[in-house]
Each structure stands twice: as structure tokens, then as C-alpha cells.
Amino acid sequence: MKFHLPACLVASAAFSFFPTVNADGIRGKESNQRRVLGRDQPATYLVQEIQYEHDESGRRLKLFEGRPERLDAVELDGGMIYTIVGKIPPGWAVSGQGVMLPAKAVIDDATATITLPNSNGNGGGGGARHLEGDADVPKAENAITEDQERNLAELRRQLAVVTGNKSVLAVRVIASDGQYGFTPDHLECKVFGSIGANTCGDNYNLKSAYSACSFGKLNIIKAANKTSLKTTVTNISNGVVTVTLPTTSIAQGDGTMRNAVTSALKSAFGVEANKLANHLMYCLPPNTMKGIAYAYVNSWNSVYSNQWCNYVSAQTHEIGHNLNLAHSGEGTAQYADQSGMMGYSYSQDDGPVMCFNAAKNYQLGWYSDKMKVVTPGAATNNCFAGDLYGTAFYGNAVAQTVGIKVNNSGSSTDYYIMYNAKTGIQSGTVEGGNQVMVVQAGGEGTAYAASTLLAKITTTTTGYTFPGLPNTKLYVDTNVSASYASIRIETNGVSCVPL
To answer: How far is CA 444 from CA 155, 415, 451, in A?
Structure first.
């Protein structure tokens, strides 16, 4: 079995533009596909994280070495997404953030890219954050004003909605020289666990995974049926649609094909693609993209290479990015925390059965009534002593605590603890089964922020010391029960009365 490294693509923006050369659409001749923005226009900045194939050791396959894991992008009118070439202006820092796209930006439909003025990668004006490989520019150039920072702080606090019904439309793509290789029924079964109103024998899929992990608080539903106005696009039926692109080839790449799909959906149904469902999964023909999947953070679109559209770990991971979840890493590998779905993805139809790590659980808020916050040094809630249950037991009345945030009051980077009981919704966890897991993450636990696995603890009588909190220790005993671990968190050796 191979596992694979995810990457998320964040982008969304709407703006009008004024071509200074002829532009007859995505499928026009290349000479007619470059357009120039006539004046500044509002847009939305997005980030792209890209997932590549890795070997068993976690090393990226040589075929994909040196390729970027994150790109910057903007979304235009109609859901058209373009990768930014060169630098981005100062203050473009948060995915989903409204920005002003400058006049004279050059839009190239042939490559699905946009070049900002004075930001062509060879110096000049503009901002500080570059595409992968442009690390020669000092980070100090990315200075922003106090007002911008306050606005960004507020934006970071705005979470994607992670409860209620979320509609999904799975899109089969047929290009001029290749196609997604599975039937509509197969795709419907793999995403929703049913064909029409009937079950299909797939017990673990996007719908069932999010339902189980959220204890029914997030419900994935099929996009509403809709009649197509175009012969090249089928009707939307049971959450699936097929888009045929007779003049788009695999060689043109995933960016061009992605925008061609988005354009075709708008033409066929008379509304922007992102109005057809909360989330649209584009299943591309094999060899169209270099990675295996990507998604736009805090947005609506995810894109998959052929069979990866069928694998539940890739589905859950990429939709997780849409829901504003960042990666789960370990050591220097940003996807290597294999205790949950925001690490590597796996080439398995029905597994592994697992949800998310402690930091992601805190951010999602599904278990908020059974989450504790400990702030060492504070007047109250400065310690903990009690039983920490596995998240699989959240629904049990006896389980009063399933996660703990250890708040570092001097930093936005805090620590998150869970007992990774290998049962129920975590029965297939690949790493740290039946151990207490300690991860750290920024953003105060509410914003898009990567997490890092710091420790996997079975039992410790000498205590685990949190980095950044040298006087605070965690004591663990996992030998009491398979359902929970008995733990203590204390500062300066001061014991806590059990809760």
C-alpha cells in the first residue's frame, strides 16, 4: 500500500475584467487567451495545497521531487481559478480573504495563470510571499499595516460552517483524449455510499466518514437533481454529473481542464458552478495532473486524479481543506501525522477508518461540550486530573472529557491532547493507537493552521514537559482502561483535584 501527501489549494474571487485583446473563451486559440485587466477589481485570494504520491517511508516519489506543495491563486467571476505567477502583494495572507486585484494583471486561459503587474518573479514591486522555490526574497518585505492585521485576525476567526447539511456534486470528466475511468454509479457509491435510494455495499465513504466523525452533526448530501441545457453535460442525477470536453486535452493540464469544467457547468445549468452544491469534486482523467489531489482551503472545489476520487481518505482530506482544516504533520514532514485524515492519504477504497487529531477536533468543535481548556499559571482552570476518553466514546454519558487544549497564554501556538483509543471511529488509526497524543498548532485552535505531532505516550511517571511551558508536565497512565487514559496536567508540581 502506498500513501500519499495531500496539498490544499485555496482560492476564490469574483471580479469583472476588461480584455485589451480578443478573448473567445477557455477553448479558444492560445493567441486569443491572454487578457489584461483594465482597472482594479475586488477578488478573493486563495491558497493551493497539492498532494503527491509517496512511498512507504513517507518519501515523495522521485517523479514528483521538487514540485510545489502550495500555490497562490485567485478566483474570478464564475468560479474560474487562476494560479498566480510571481509575487503576491503585501497583506494577502489568509485564504478566502477579499483582495483588490490590480489593473494590468494579465490573465492567461491557456495556462490557467494570472500575472500581477510588477510581480513576475524577477523583482520589482508587489509583496513578499512567493511561489514554491522563490525563497530568496526576505520575509521582512511582507509588512502590513495594523489595520490590515486586525482585519486578518478577524478573518482567521471566521470558520467554515462544519455542521448541518453540506451538498456535494461529484463531476466525472471526459477529455478529448482520456477520461475518469469509472461509471456514474461507481462514483456515487464511493462518495455517498448509495446508488439512488439503495445502499451499494460501500460502508466507508465521504458521507459515512463525516457523519461518524461528527456524531451526526455534519451531513453530506447529494447535490439536487438538475436538467442540463447542453449535450456535452449530463443532467445532475443523485449527486453526480458527467462533463465532456471535446476540445480540452490531458496535455493542457489540470488548471486548464479544471476551468473548462467550471465553464461547462455554468453553460449547462445557467448558474455558476459553485452554486450547484457546497462542494464540487472534479474527477479528472489519469495523467492530467502531477499530484494525486488538491483542494481550495475554505472554498468549494477539490480536484482528483482518476481513482483518487474514489478513495475515502483523499475525499475526507480534501473536503477537510474546504472546511478550513490544515495539514497534520510530524517532525519535518508536514503530512506525517498518521493518526487522522489530514496527514497522508491512502490508496484504499474503505479505509483507514479514522477521523482527526486533537487540534483538528478542537477547531471543528463537534466535541466542544467535552473539551477542556487548561491555562497553566492562571487563577482558575490551571490544571487537570481525570480520565481522558477516546473520541469514539464521545456519545457515552460517562465520557466527560475527550480532548484538552493546554493554553500557552504567551503565544498563539498551543497544545492539544487526546487519547487515541483504537476503536470505533478511530479503529483504523495508522499511528499512535491506544496512546495519548500531544500535538501543537497555531491560530489559537480556531484558525487554519498546520499541526505537529509532538509525543505519543503510553505511560509516564516522570512526566512529559510541553515545549514553551517548561514548568508544566503531563502524566499519563493508559493501563487503566481500553476506553480512556488517566492523566494529570500540573505546573510547578502542584497537584489538581480530579474533575
So the answer is: 13, 9, 11
Which three cell numbers mark 43?
477578488
For the segment 423-438, the average pLDDT, to the nearest whole number, is: 97
Q: How far apart are CA 420 and CA 428, in angstroms?
A: 11
Lowest-pLDDT choice from 69-73, 218-222, 264-268, 399-403: 69-73
pTM reported for the whole predicted model: 0.86
Cell of 494: 502542584
Q: Mention every residue, 6+ apart, whose C-beta is less than 8 A from residue 275.
A: none
d(CA 453, CA 415): 10
Sign of the alpha-carbon torsion through 102, 108, 114, 118:
negative
C-alpha–C-alpha distance, residues 137 and 121, integer Å: 10
C-alpha dist (Å) from residue 462 to 73, 168, 405, 455, 475 = 48, 49, 21, 14, 7
- pLDDT class of 129 with cuts at 50, 70, 90: very low
Q: Tell me the pLDDT band of 321, cut-offs 50, 70 and 90.
A: very high
Nearest CA-CA partner of 358 in 412, 397, 401 = 401
Kind of pairing between the strands at 451-457 and 328-330? parallel
pLDDT at 80 over 50: yes
**Is it the case that residue 345 has pLDDT exceeding 50?**
yes
Bond prior to 352 in cis (omega within 30° of 0): yes
Q: DSSP secondary structure string, 301-353?
A: EEEEEGGGGT-HHHHHHHHHHHTT---EEETTBTT--TTSTTS-EES-SS---
| Cα first-last separation, the chain | 43
Distance CA 314, CA 301 (A): 14
